[in-house]
């Protein structure tokens, strides 16, 4: 679209009020952008910042990560949550080394072919790292467009074809401007047009917002409930994985129970179900004699102690209130 009334005020607001985030600064690398987008999926910026800084310092490019076992990626991921993201980043780094000369590919189709990269992440990296023209649609953009353009209090529970079409129609024609629009709309949705307490008084498009002109009607759909965490299978998976991250040798299932100070692990069915899930997801390698370790490590050839690590604390709860591929900009 050559021009839309939303473009100028949103871009001007972003230029003045955007957060200073390292993956947005001049000199950012495509790898740094990709790592940020993967980490920011359903994880707040405040938790991602130190993890991103440590990750990119240790592995400044795909080749550096691909040269190490997947176990190191899982250890470095620590308590960001959803650890399959670390495994997929490691797999993607290997693909980039094998097929793209150790570089993040520029082509959108090549980005989509990387492990763990979906439609949102491919569009975001193509836009933010390479300045290409793509609609970048996350939960914040969907909410902003639902209110400002269609007059709805909230977007549909999942991305619709109509939302994708609308977002595409609003992308400016010039690639550089399109990339700035993508991140600016996302930032406005994250900081001003928020889900629960929108700051309409400070919104640069308040006079253009259809939802506000309609009197800011309440959402008509069912309320989205925050998902519980403690006691769930995902919680138990986190406890088990935390113990294995700290281990210096493989652990038996019995040793895992002894090492984790949480009564929920005393349920052998849930513990075994969680372990089976970790193995199925490739996050844990099973070994003979009912032992387990992080993936990609050499199997030990000597006997190992029953308890090779100290007890570990329970994992920090992760934000699981927003579904979809990205909910970062909060």
According to DSSP, the number of beta strands is 3
Bulk shape: globular
Lateral arrangement of strands in the main beta sheet = 1-3-2
State the end-to-end distance. Answer: 28 Å
| Sheet with most strands | 3 strands, antiparallel
- CATH topology of the domain at 7-213, what is it called? Endonuclease III, domain 1
What is the name of the CATH architecture of the domain at 7-213? Orthogonal Bundle
How many helical elements?
15
The Rg value, from CA coordinates, equals 22 Å
Write the H/E string, N to C.
HHHHHHHHHHHHHEHHEE
Task: Describe the structure in your own words.
With 330 residues, the chain is an all-alpha fold. 48% of the residues lie in helices and 2% in strands. The chain has helices at residues 7-17, 30-39, 45-58, 62-66, 70-77, 84-99, 108-112, 119-130, 139-150, 161-170, 175-191, 210-213, 233-246, 253-259, 268-280; strands at residues 251-252, 285-287, 291-293. A three-stranded antiparallel β-sheet has the order 1-3-2. A hairpin with a 3-residue loop joins strand 2 (285-287) and strand 3 (291-293). The radius of gyration is 22 Å and the shape is globular. 41% of the residues are buried. The model is unreliable at 302-306 and 318-325 (pLDDT under 50).
Put the structure in a nutshell.
This protein is mostly helical.
Name the descriptors.
330 residues; 3 strands; three-stranded antiparallel sheet; mainly alpha; Endonuclease III, domain 1
């Amino acid at each position: 679209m050559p021009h839309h009334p939303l473009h100028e005020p949103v871009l001007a607001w972003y230029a003045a009020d955007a957060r200073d985030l390292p993956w947005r600064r001049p000199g950012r690398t495509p790898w740094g952008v990709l790592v940020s987008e993967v980490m920011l999926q359903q994880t707040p910026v405040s938790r991602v910042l130190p993890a991103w800084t440590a990750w990119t310092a240790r592995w400044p490019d795909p080749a550096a990560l691909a040269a190490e076992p997947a176990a190191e990626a899982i250890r470095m991921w620590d308590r960001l949550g959803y650890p399959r993201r670390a495994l997929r980043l490691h797999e993607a780094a290997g693909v980039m080394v094998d097929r793209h000369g150790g570089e993040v590919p520029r082509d959108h189709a090549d980005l989509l072919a990387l492990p763990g990269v979906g439609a949102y992440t491919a569009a975001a990296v193509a836009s933010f790292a390479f300045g290409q023209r793509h609609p970048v649609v996350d939960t914040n953009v969907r909410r902003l467009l639902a209110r400002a353009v269609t007059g709805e209090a909230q977007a549909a529970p999942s991305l619709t074809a109509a939302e994708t079409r609308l977002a595409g129609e609003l992308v400016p024609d010039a690639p550089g401007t399109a990339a700035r629009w993508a991140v600016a709309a996302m930032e406005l949705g994250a900081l001003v047009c928020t889900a629960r307490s929108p700051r309409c008084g400070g919104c640069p498009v308040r006079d253009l917002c259809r939802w506000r002109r309609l009197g800011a009607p309440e959402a008509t759909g069912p309320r989205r409930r925050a998902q519980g965490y403690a006691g769930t299978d995902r919680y138990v998976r986190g406890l088990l994985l935390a113990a294995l991250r700290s281990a210096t040798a493989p652990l038996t299932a019995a040793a895992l129970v002894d090492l984790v100070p949480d009564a929920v692990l005393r349920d052998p069915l849930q513990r075994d179900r969680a372990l089976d899930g970790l193995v199925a997801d490739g996050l844990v390698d099973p070994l003979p004699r009912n032992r387990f370790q992080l993936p990609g490590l050499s199997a030990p050839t000597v006997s190992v102690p029953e308890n090779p690590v100290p007890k570990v604390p329970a994992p920090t709860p992760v934000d699981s209130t927003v579904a979809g591929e990205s909910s970062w900009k909060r």
